[in-house]
């Protein structure tokens, strides 16, 4: 695995107070959306932001140990493009307790897909703001990854989902939507964009991550009460298709001059959506195990 020495001097992610969350995570609980930035790996030349120093030991202290989690899903950052070296090094460091979502070029060779799968990759990321893959490649990439049982991880303006939903449902693989669907604006539950997500979830072929609640047009402040009915609508439609993630280390927020939210409070947002132990166990343990191919954990 090639390692490049970077000349950047990125800042480390600041430590948060180690106050525990109110929610006691079940055994096998998984953080389904986080990033690792090892400084020895160069970002792409046109990176949209300089990556911070955010290593696996730092993540374990800040998230796993503090929140009571034991599994993670490392998402390939836009800063590294289609070079998955940083991702693969992170997966190796997690010693089998993490899975990955990679970025690839549409013409990636079969042998490389197999290598990624063997390393723990279970999905391909389409990030529509600064990513490498465009929606034009959606069907071709889906056809390439379907035999591996992988999914498409899609981050796009959720207001466009009504025009995309039939196309997503026709893919030969599952689709996972980032950031509550990332509607940009606060929308009512009966809005076509929210209902498009509900339709995806109800099909059993779509998933949604309850991540980055602050990801709106105006970077809405905590505690984001406008998301409660949306999250509840998702759970009412398909509680087996919803997962949660920390979005650690929130790389873009410092670039925008905005504070990083307390990660314990991000986990505790789930208590605003449900207090049912079965639903919480599904969101944090059972659903991630199915989606990312982790061993089942007894409830």
Automatic annotation (TrEMBL):
<keyword id="KW-0413">Isomerase</keyword>
<feature type="domain" description="Amidohydrolase-related">
    <location>
        <begin position="30"/>
        <end position="294"/>
    </location>
</feature>
<dbReference type="InterPro" id="IPR052358">
    <property type="entry name" value="Aro_Compnd_Degr_Hydrolases"/>
</dbReference>
<dbReference type="Pfam" id="PF04909">
    <property type="entry name" value="Amidohydro_2"/>
</dbReference>
<feature type="region of interest" description="Disordered">
    <location>
        <begin position="1"/>
        <end position="25"/>
    </location>
</feature>
<dbReference type="InterPro" id="IPR006680">
    <property type="entry name" value="Amidohydro-rel"/>
</dbReference>
<dbReference type="GO" id="GO:0016787">
    <property type="term" value="F:hydrolase activity"/>
</dbReference>
<dbReference type="InterPro" id="IPR032466">
    <property type="entry name" value="Metal_Hydrolase"/>
</dbReference>
<protein>
    <submittedName>
        <fullName>D-galactarolactone isomerase</fullName>
    </submittedName>
</protein>
<dbReference type="GO" id="GO:0016853">
    <property type="term" value="F:isomerase activity"/>
</dbReference>
């Amino acid at each position: 695995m090639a390692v490049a020495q970077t000349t950047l001097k990125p800042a480390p992610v600041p430590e948060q107070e180690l106050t525990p969350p109110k929610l006691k995570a079940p055994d096998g609980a998984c953080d389904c959306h986080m990033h690792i930035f090892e400084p020895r790996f160069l970002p792409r030349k046109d990176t949209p932001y300089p990556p911070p120093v955010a290593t696996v030991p730092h993540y374990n202290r800040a998230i796993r140990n503090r929140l009571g989690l034991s599994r993670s899903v490392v998402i390939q950052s836009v800063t590294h493009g289609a070079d998955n070296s940083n991702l693969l090094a992170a997966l190796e460091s997690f010693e089998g307790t993490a899975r990955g979502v990679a970025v690839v070029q549409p013409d990636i060779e079969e042998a490389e897909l197999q290598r990624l799968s063997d390393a723990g990759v279970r999905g391909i990321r389409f990030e529509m703001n600064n990513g490498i893959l465009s929606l034009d490649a959606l069907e071709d990439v889906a056809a390439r990854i379907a035999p591996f049982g992988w999914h498409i991880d899609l981050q796009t303006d959720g207001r466009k989902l009504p025009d995309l939903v039939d196309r997503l449902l026709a893919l030969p693989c599952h689709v996972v939507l980032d950031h509550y669907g990332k509607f940009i604006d606060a929308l009512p539950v009966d809005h076509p964009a929210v209902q498009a997500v509900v339709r995806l979830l109800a099909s059993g072929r779509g998933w949604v991550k309850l991540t980055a609640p602050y990801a709106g047009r105006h970077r809405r402040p905590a505690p984001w009460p406008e998301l409660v009915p949306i999250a509840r609508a998702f759970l009412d439609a398909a509680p087996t298709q919803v997962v949660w993630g920390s979005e650690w280390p929130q790389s873009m927020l410092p670039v925008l001059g905005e504070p990083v939210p307390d990660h314990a409070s991000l986990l505790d947002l789930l208590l605003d959506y449900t207090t049912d132990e079965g639903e919480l166990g599904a969101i944090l343990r059972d659903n991630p195990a199915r989606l990312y191919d982790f061993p089942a954990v007894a409830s």
